[in-house]
């Protein structure tokens, strides 16, 4: 998907919400567990319930790989079910030597037709470059929302700047704002502000809202650029808003609430 | 597999060779491409040809994921075919927030029964810790063998030490030499030396020998500890030693040659 299309979709739906499809059997209501393919049945209902309120779905590969062959089947059916015009992200955090990254790119783009893949930058540029392809997006981890992000990302280098800014600056030599985004945790607005200063034109994929505690108004205040420039991901807070058989209705209500709030920041 | 067993296997076979199973259809002889499951057929012959000369197999997930469901089937059949007593590594370079890393650990340990998983440390400790389980191994990327490893791993921090040493020192607070190894590229002996100074008891998984140019005698000189402490991985140089229908024989000759050289360093 091209950037112009993504921005158009955001304004049309008044939403920059990405719904994370992290299907966790332990959190499913018993009615869904009785289905032949519980993961796909769950995702199908979540997609039906949320598609009017989001522009993107993010597939967390771990939740499918956990179930081996069956999980990959559920993944394929889920991808087939997501309507066109959604920006579909493989949240895979891959990154490996050149010939291996090329294989991963084939897996996500050719085999599954994802629009984007999240990538871990520790091994440097030649692990990221095979993911740049026409119409596809590399989404590079910069500053994540988990507690131990500080272990390395916030370490200052001898240049007097934190590692995550070093990664950001180097990443800008790999791609452009038309084929690369950055992952920034939603729990620390000051980091979003800093990253926006260094990467004005780039889209930021921001998880950590909802379950992890990020605040949407702060994210928009510091994250927005003149083309919105922000995709906010919510997974658990939408998927498991209600734990009973009415889970899809719970997800719909939660997604709509977030979209309504988003629409106020967009106008 | 316990460390004592791994070391025992190394001395018994006089080999610390890990064969990387990176099946690339473009490099297969035409006879194999005609098989119903070319990847499994290829791997089966490679395993038969090399099992007397190695103690470990490393599965590069990308080469299987590229082929979707079929690739995962080939992976499962390959794992079922590897004899017991081999140390089997998922070369996956995963690492994600806590609940996601737990799912990946389930995927690799419960679903596929790997002994070990390679992990990317950019997101810090809470992304690695779910991979510690009884009898299983976390293999953390420290200093890789690819050209762009220098992008970040060699950056000096304000403490005056390179990032890869910061990662190594922090990683030592996550696990022990009985459940954690480190990935160190084989192309730079001086880095192996440095890492060995900081991590005396730990096993090092060293790729980059063969195709990438690492020298085995140098690796042993700087990498060995009093329990060997080194697994050397070769993929392409063994798998594609011969490109014709005699590929398995080519692999056998190459693996045996490496094992013979290894036996001299072990005695």
Question: Can you describe this structure?
Answer:
2 copies of one chain form a homodimer. Chain A is globular. In chain A, helix 3 (38-50) runs parallel beside helix 5, helix 3 (38-50) runs parallel beside helix 11 and helix 8 runs parallel beside helix 9 (216-223). Helix content of chain A is 42%, strand content 16%. Chain A has an 8-stranded parallel beta barrel, surrounded by 6 helices. The model of chain A has no long low-confidence stretch (mean pLDDT 96). Chain A has one domain: TIM Barrel (Alpha-Beta Barrel). Chain A contains 11 helices and 8 strands. The longest helix of chain A is centred in the last third of the chain and has 20 residues, at 247-266. With 267 residues, chain A is an alpha/beta fold. Chain A has helices spanning 3-13, 30-33, 38-50, 62-65, 68-81, 98-111, 163-171, 189-198, 216-223, 236-239, 247-266, and strands spanning 17-21, 56-60, 87-94, 116-119, 137-143, 180-184, 203-206, 230-234. The two termini of chain A are 24 Å apart. Chains A and B meet through helix 4, helix 5, strand 3, helix 6 and helix 7 of A and helix 4, helix 5, strand 3, helix 6 and helix 7 of B.
Topology:
2 copies of one chain form a homodimer.
Chain A: H1 3-13, E1 17-21, H2 30-33, H3 38-50, E2 56-60, H4 62-65, H5 68-81, E3 87-94, H6 98-111, E4 116-119, E5 137-143, H7 163-171, E6 180-184, H8 189-198, E7 203-206, H9 216-223, E8 230-234, H10 236-239, H11 247-266
Parallel strand pairs in A: 1-2, 1-8, 2-3, 3-4, 4-5, 5-6, 6-7, 7-8
């Amino acid at each position: 998907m091209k950037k112009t299309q993504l921005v158009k979709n955001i304004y049309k739906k008044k939403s920059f919400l990405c719904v994370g499809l992290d299907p966790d059997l332990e959190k499913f209501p018993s009615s869904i567990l009785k289905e032949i393919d519980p993961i796909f049945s769950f995702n199908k209902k979540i997609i039906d319930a949320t598609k009017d309120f989001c522009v993107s779905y993010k597939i967390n590969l771990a939740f499918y790989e956990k179930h081996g062959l069956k999980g990959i089947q559920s993944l394929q059916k889920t991808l087939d079910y997501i309507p066109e015009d959604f920006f579909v992200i493989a949240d895979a955090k891959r990154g490996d030597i050149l010939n291996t990254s090329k294989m991963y790119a084939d897996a996500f783009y050719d085999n599954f037709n994802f629009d984007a893949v999240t990538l871990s930058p520790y091994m440097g540029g030649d692990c990221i470059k095979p993911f740049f392809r026409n119409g596809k997006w590399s989404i590079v981890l910069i500053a994540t929302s988990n507690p131990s992000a500080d272990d390395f990302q916030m370490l200052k280098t001898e240049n007097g700047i934190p590692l995550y800014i070093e990664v950001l600056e180097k990443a800008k030599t790999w791609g452009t704002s038309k084929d690369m985004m950055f992952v920034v945790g939603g729990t620390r607005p000051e980091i979003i502000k800093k990253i926006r200063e260094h990467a004005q034109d780039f889209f930021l994929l921001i998880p950590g809202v909802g379950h992890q505690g990020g605040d949407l108004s702060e994210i928009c205040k510091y994250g927005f650029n003149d083309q919105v420039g922000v995709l906010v991901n919510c997974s658990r807070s939408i998927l498991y808003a209600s734990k009973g058989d009415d889970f899809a209705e719970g997800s719909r209500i939660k997604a709509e609430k977030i979209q309504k709030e988003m629409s106020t920041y967009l106008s």
